Amino acid sequence: RAKSAGRGCYRFFEAEMNAQALLRRTLQVDIRRGLQAGEFELFYQPQVSLPARRLTGFEALLRWRHPERGLLTPDRFVPLAEDMGLILPLGEWVLTQACAEAAAWPADKKLAVNLSPVQFTGSLVETVTTALHAAGLDAARLELEVTETVLLRETEATLVTLHRLRGLGVAIALDDFGTGYSSLGYLQRFPFDKVKIDRTFIRSLGKSRESDAIVRSVIDLCDALDMVTIAEGVETEEQRRILTAQGCDEAQGHLFGRPMTVPEIRDLLRVQIAPLPAPPRASA
Ligand code: C2E
Ligand code: MG
Ligand code: MG
Ligand code: MG
Fold first, then answer.
1. Which of 54, 220, 243, 253 is most deeply packed, by most CB within 10 A?
2. Does ligand 1 have an atom closer than 6 angstroms to the CB of 18?
């Protein structure tokens, strides 16, 4: 390679690096600003029991109502917030906010909150304790969702944290099960309360014998290990029927309800708990 070309390349690379760094810096400031401006919002998606389809609770799903870019889903900003350590204040906000909201629900409805692996480097147990206490929410109503990534960079500290969280009375769910490496091993390494079967397996239920067999095996295994199973991304009646036949405990997906705003779920809960409306009075 010619020296001059190499130098040109280098300059281009350097300029590109600066542009990248600037963009990241801009977004970092933007996330901070958004957090202060109250632009983050939690949506809540129903989780139901099978076969009864009784509402058991909701999973909190983070959104960013960005003034210029519109409503953003987590894939657009969570990885960035993780890189920049901003997931710590953001995650703390999520826990505080979600626990406060759940405290207003009927006591039999549970709350599931997603955790980033990065939060395990912070004072997670204290953050969770504070959020529960501030909201007056019973720990038994909170479930924390972690992915295999948390155990991938497994340290003694991670396991200690998971056990301490469980010690608070909080349940731990393994999210996106089946998408990572050596998944079965993780079920042995930590006693999860619940396993969320990833929607990639649910999607092909009834269409592929392999998927049916995998899902059935996961459900049977979890059953044997005393873990609750929940299927993610259930969209069709056929999927629901197969999961029910296979003995899956719970389900979540567009078939039962999309992620909803706070006013929407409060309406839903009011419908569930309110007595039947009085018959309309004859108009005068
Ligand atoms: P997840 O925890 O696996 O959440 C389920 C995702 O599937 C959600 O995407 C949900 O909107 C979507 N979904 C639910 N039902 C269906 C369905 O029937 N069909 C399809 N196609 N999709 C369905 P969302 O809200 O975009 O969240 C994506 C991911 O972002 C979550 O995956 C979770 O890992 C992460 N996330 C969400 N909220 C938070 C948070 O507060 N903190 C952290 N650290 N991560 C979060
Ligand atoms: Mg989740
Ligand atoms: Mg998931
Ligand atoms: Mg998933």
1. 243
2. no
The residue whose C-alpha atom lies closest to atom 22 belonging to ligand 1 is 233
Alpha-carbon span 227 to 191, nearest angstrom: 8
**3-class DSSP state of 115:** coil
Contact 116 CB / ligand 1 (< 6 Å): yes
HSE of 220, CA atoms in CB hemisphere, 13 A: 8
Pocket-testing residue among 114, 118, 235, ligand 1, by greatest number of atoms within 8 A of Cβ: 114
pLDDT tens, 43-60?
A: 999 999 999 999 999 999
CA of 135 to the centre of ligand 3 (A): 25
* Tens digits of residue pLDDT in 215-246: 999 999 999 999 999 999 999 999 999 999 99
**C-alpha dihedral over 125, 127, 129, 131, to 10 degrees?**
-150
Q: How far is CA 106 from the centre of its chain?
A: 21
